[in-house]
């Protein structure tokens, strides 16, 4: 794996001059993907948002990864923390020009998005997780799960009934954690594999409008 970059590579949905005052939606791609992947969802998301799709820090195969896969020997909670700490350092430089910060992650990106929430829950308006999971904190102080439970932010978690990538242990943990710590909306899509669908994105747009744009 390559060294973590000082600043992440980010694909934006609009030029810098048009971002001030808009709600920010930060996108985290999945394993072996890249920042230009999820930015393609822009036409299916509310146009009020500025999208910022962030590239994972470690080059691997055809794309990038945030941390090792959980079953790999070099995986650790600390590797997750390292990636999320870098995201927060970048967020601190951009978030103040936006009216709110919401995070969305696909697959491993959902682990990143939920971990971003769990570090500083008061500063995140809502979370969208697509075909993904949350990681156990293993007692690491970086994860403020008590604060997350108090804040109880809205979380949309959508997954496909035919998804054979995310294992049952990850699903069970995520369901227990999300039910206890967030205002959970969970959706299961018949016939959908490890991907996203148009009906799901319509539900995501409704969720974002209700929980972020309309207050």
Q: Notable features of this structure?
A:
Rossmann fold; alpha/beta; seven-stranded mixed sheet; disordered N terminus; two-stranded antiparallel ribbon; 215 residues
* End-to-end distance: 43 Å
Structural category is: alpha/beta
Q: What profile does the largest beta sheet have?
A: 7 strands, mixed
Beta-strand residue percentage:
15-25%
> What is the CATH superfamily label?
Alpha/Beta hydrolase fold, catalytic domain
Report the order of strands and helices.
EEHEEEHEHEHEHEH
| Rg from Cα | 16 Å
Structural description of this entry:
It contains 6 helices and 9 strands. The protein has one domain: Rossmann fold (3-Layer(aba) Sandwich), CATH 3.40.50. Helices cover 33% and strands 21% of the residues. Helix 2 crosses helix 3. 39% of the residues are buried. The protein is an alpha/beta fold.
